[in-house]
């Protein structure tokens, strides 16, 4: 072709002397066509590097091979690792993903849902969502909630997947106890998140099983779960004369910030203060000292969510509506054993 415009299915059809419908049948390998026709069409596709517009196709058919993925913070390694696993599974199955980052904002999440509805995506995977995706889209679409459990018995195909956050909190309590901590402080992630509640409840349950009750004022929820928040909270605890010999930080970022302040104040870890984080992101291994943390497999969560979504968009009902993946403690140098 002489011009530089993108080749269309109609162009391929005219070159090969067939209909657009025949080109579509060759591409999708359905319907009837001769081997000679297939060879001619495929040679033209390769020669002109024709790429079917799957999004436009989806808009025409009110469906597509695109799955919407909504996360609160794509810069967080937990979510980026999850997305990479999803993308690999979908790519291998001729699906693609469109990613929306809400920046932990309810308003942004609602805007993302509006765009998802306009795109007529095949399904939605939503992590740490505060809104009901099915209500927001105003139509039945296969939906998977990550780190949020909802009623899966109403409103079409829906499933939930999460790591065992309650168990993770219990493991953190046990580890601090065995490190000698009797006056711990909890620094939570987002106060409104069900993940935060599960981790905190698990921690408190773990302490109770050891005969220790934690005063509610020793549970601190920052506005944002970040390294700076961890630094500021521990600085405030020290400035206010709060006595503590253990910290359960419900994200590794908070824990790394806490370690920075403890080091700056010459408080020895773990001799004076034992610290346990959560997530086991790469940063945990390179903290100073290396951080004991609760490991959750974000890659496995993403892979499992993508495989489940493929089943659902292909017409199958989810075999498991609520999936909980195991967690484990990774002991490093911020805790000790006598």
Q: Secondary-structure element order, as H and E?
A: HHHHEHEHEHEEHEHEHEHEHEHEE
Across the major sheet, the strand order is 2-1-3-4-5-11
Average pLDDT over all residues: 88
Structural class: alpha/beta
Number of E-type strands: 12
Q: Which architecture of the largest domain does the CATH hierarchy give at level 2?
A: 3-Layer(aba) Sandwich
Strand content bin: 15-25%
Low-confidence stretches: none
Can you identify the CATH class of the largest domain? Alpha Beta
Q: What general outline do the C-alpha atoms trace?
A: elongated
CATH homologous group name of the largest domain: Response regulator
> What would the CATH topology of the largest domain be?
Rossmann fold
What is the straight-line distance between the termini? 77 Å
Number of domains: 3
Helix content: 40-55%
What does this structure look like?
The chain is built from 13 helices and twelve strands. The longest helix has 16 residues, at 77-92. The model has no long low-confidence stretch (mean pLDDT 88). Helix 1 crosses helix 3, helix 5 packs parallel to helix 13 (298-313) and helix 10 crosses helix 11 (252-264). Helix 11 links the parallel strand 8 (246-249) and strand 9 (274-279). By secondary structure, it is of the alpha/beta class. It has three domains: 9-52, 434 Repressor (Amino-terminal Domain), CATH 1.10.260.40; 59-163 and 298-326, Response regulator (Rossmann fold); 165-296, Rossmann fold. The protein has helices spanning 9-16, 20-28, 35-47, 54-61, 77-92, 106-119, 133-137, 165-178, 194-209, 227-239, 252-264, 282-286, 298-313; strands at 66-71, 96-101, 123-127, 143-146, 158-163, 184-187, 219-220, 246-249, 274-279, 292-295, 322-325, 328-330. 40% of the residues are buried. The chain has a six-stranded parallel sheet with strand order 2-1-3-4-5-11. Strands 7-6-8-9-10-12 form a six-stranded mixed sheet, sandwiched between helices. It is elongated. It is 44% helix and 16% strand.
